[in-house]
Automatic annotation (TrEMBL):
Phosphoprotein as UniProt keyword: yes
Name of this chain's protein: Malonate decarboxylase acyl carrier protein
Family affiliation: Belongs to the MdcC family.
GO CC, any one term: cytoplasm
PTM summary: Covalently binds the prosthetic group of malonate decarboxylase.
Residues found modified as O-(phosphoribosyl dephospho-coenzyme A)serine: S25
Protein keywords: Cytoplasm, Phosphoprotein
Domain of life: Bacteria
MF terms in GO: acyl carrier activity
Pfam families registered for this protein in UniProt: ACP (PF06857)
Subcellular localization: Cytoplasm
Length: 99
């Protein structure tokens, strides 16, 4: 298992927590807890070796479409495709934004 951590500037402030996906399904899960900082901290546990550049590129792409929220994100990846990963990440952001 590979452990990857990133920090990205965040300009949106939300409140609450959210969970999307289930790692036991052979997919991935994303947990997000908003906070009042100005950074999005991301911790990824992945079954795919050398996936750091893929994760970094995914978050850079997501941030190019809108502001990232501040908080702590934990991702448990079991080889999900980038498309599924993006859906799960956007699901937790949307759930917290609607809370």
């Amino acid at each position: 298992m590979q452990q990857i951590t990133f920090s990205f500037p965040a300009t949106r402030h939300l409140s609450g927590k959210a969970l999307a996906g289930v790692v036991g399904s052979g997919d991935m899960e994303v947990l997000f807890a908003a906070d009042s900082s100005s950074v999005l901290h991301v911790a990824v546990t992945s079954s795919v070796d050398n996936s750091g550049p893929r994760w970094k590129a995914l978050f850079e792409r997501i941030s190019s479409f809108g502001a990232l929220p501040a908080g702590q994100m934990t991702i448990h990846d079991f080889g999900a495709t980038p498309g599924v990963a993006r859906i799960r990440i956007e699901q937790v952001f949307e759930e917290v934004a609607d809370a």
